[in-house]
Recover the amino acids of this structure.
């Protein structure tokens, strides 16, 4: 039970950068709900897990392309926008980690 709850919390926290990246990049951001972003995060994680175990060495590349495809279809954006959302998501995570380090907040306990 505790494991399922902790996975749920991890998926919620990992959905936050994607949500903000979509809000920053997409002009029609009113259609984007956090619930949809949360479900897309779970879907991308499941696809990445299945692909990485099936494709071996090229699994990361295939999972990346499939993640962009899921973003493209679920949020009704083009390939370039999907890539920019993915890139912005990584930038947001890096900025949050950098802010935590500057503030002296330990990431081990989060």
């Amino acid at each position: 039970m505790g494991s399922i709850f902790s996975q749920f919390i991890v998926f919620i926290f990992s959905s936050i950068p994607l949500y903000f990246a979509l809000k920053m990049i997409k002009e029609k951001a009113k259609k984007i709900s956090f619930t949809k972003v949360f479900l897309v995060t779970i879907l991308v994680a499941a696809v990445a897990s299945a692909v990485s175990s099936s494709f071996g060495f090229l699994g990361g590349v295939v999972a990346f392309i499939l993640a962009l495809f899921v973003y493209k279809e679920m949020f009704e954006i083009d390939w370039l926008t999907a890539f920019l959302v993915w890139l912005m998501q990584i930038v947001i995570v890096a900025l949050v980690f950098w802010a935590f380090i500057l503030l002296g907040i330990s990431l081990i306990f989060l």
